[in-house]
DNA sequence: CGTGGTTTTGATAATAGTCAACACGAGTGG
DNA sequence: CCACTCGTGTTGACTATTATCAAAACCACG
């Protein structure tokens, strides 16, 4: 999951398995904190997230980290390049995953429909990453955080009355490393949004959007 | 072309057409300043750059721009998402392009080898973009500019004696929008590198790398 | 030679980062 | 059941990096 301006109406779309014919019994279950794969591992499987949340990260030698994406239900993770993984992937919320053989993507043998679906997922990934470039390269801290909350609200927010409740299973540092900020800046920005009445912070991992339109404005850079 | 730490030995690799059997006569030639496609256009063709340089850009409503990539010989541009282009693409240096039907990527009918090759290119694209995330999100101005020069030297630099000469057909503003900086910062950073003797600026569009190892150090963040 | 666009340089401002202290909360063990 | 502790988050003070605005220099081109 990348952060862009919410565009398509994806709000709480049901998690449709890529190919419904796949038997349920080869689902994979993973606990919080466990790793799905590491950078450099050979790729044998791709995974579609069915429940839970994953975190994909890349590290620089000196410890600087970039969170590449969060894997939410519906997302496909594990696209290979040259046959290898180029990120680490671990579990933020206990997850259920539907594995697909790498060969289903790369040679498509046996299941043309699955092959097509995985290819389309890869192409969507490219497009989503392009949007994310814009955010990393050109948006201010407030715009980044507001965009992040907008997209999460759109994808996994719970309507509660007029408001929308978002669960943030990741730590502030994860959000920071995803948006190209520091923990402190993410924290300060949330405080600022709270003081303006745009959001309410129910607890560290739960945020309520009080003024969705204001948040959207902020995500787009309407200076105010 | 994205900017990462030069890793594979790609230096001046010959431009190998994806499938050598493709007849030369359906090459496309484009002049400087012409557009190959626009954001929102339906995708009918992908293109492999054979000669010349392309520029892929995305715009925000308020005019902020992100250069997504530069298309150098060997690169494939035009991957669709949902059937449409998600960037503009125009020509920085007169270019020769090898077109491939979108169906060659998406349905693969008729030419499995081409289908595979285009898919692998898409997967490499995803990996390269992940590297670029790290740069946009986590690197300083000097690291960004040094990385940019390193990759260009690696891919298209001309050895001239001990030094390496790089042609920069794009304007400073393009480099800035690619790296998430301003024109002024790019210019100042180049000046700084010149004053340190790491590079020499032959003219606005030609840079000579005097201390490749120092440049590489700087690109990795060895603080100095 | 002008002329217009680009680049460089300078002065200043703003944003986000750094470092440090404190607050909060979950879990532990007395 | 209550401190205690550790990891995380928040806040504050200050700094640094990069952006902004403006002017001068440079270059390409007619």
UniProtKB/TrEMBL annotation, chains A, B:
Residues 139-213 form the HTH crp-type domain. The keyword DNA-binding applies. InterPro entries: cNMP-bd_dom, cNMP-bd_dom_sf, Env_Response_Regulators, HTH_CRP, RmlC-like_jellyroll, WH-like_DNA-bd_sf, WH_DNA-bd_sf. Coiled coil: none annotated. Gene3D superfamilies: Jelly Rolls, Winged helix-like DNA-binding domain superfamily/Winged helix DNA-binding domain. Pfam families: cNMP_binding, HTH_Crp_2. It comes from the Bacteria. Keywords: DNA-binding, Transcription, Transcription regulation. The keyword tRNA-binding does not apply. This is Helix-turn-helix domain-containing protein.
């Amino acid at each position: 999951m990348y952060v862009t301006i919410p565009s398509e109406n994806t709000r709480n779309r049901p998690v449709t398995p890529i190919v419904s014919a796949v038997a349920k019994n080869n689902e994979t279950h993973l606990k919080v904190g466990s790793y799905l794969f590491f950078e450099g591992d050979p790729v044998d499987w791709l995974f579609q997230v069915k429940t839970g949340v994953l975190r994909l990260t890349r590290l620089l030698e000196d410890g600087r980290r970039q969170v590449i994406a969060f894997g939410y239900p519906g997302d496909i993770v594990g696209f290979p390049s040259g046959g290898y993984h180029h990120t680490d992937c671990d579990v933020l919320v206990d997850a259920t995953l539907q594995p697909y053989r790498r060969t289903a993507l790369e040679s498509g043998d046996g299941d043309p429909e699955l092959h097509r679906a995985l290819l389309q997922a890869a192409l969507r990934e490219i497009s989503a990453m392009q949007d994310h470039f814009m955010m990393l390269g050109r948006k201010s801290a407030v715009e980044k955080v507001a965009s992040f909350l907008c997209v999460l609200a759109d994808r996994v927010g719970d309507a509660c009355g007029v408001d929308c409740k978002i669960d943030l299973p990741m730590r502030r540092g994860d959000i920071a490393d995803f948006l190209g900020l520091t923990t402190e800046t993410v924290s300060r920005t949330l405080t600022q949004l709270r003081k303006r009445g745009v959001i309410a912070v129910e607890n560290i991992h739960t945020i309520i959007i009080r003024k969705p339109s204001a948040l959207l404005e902020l995500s787009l850079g309407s200076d105010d």
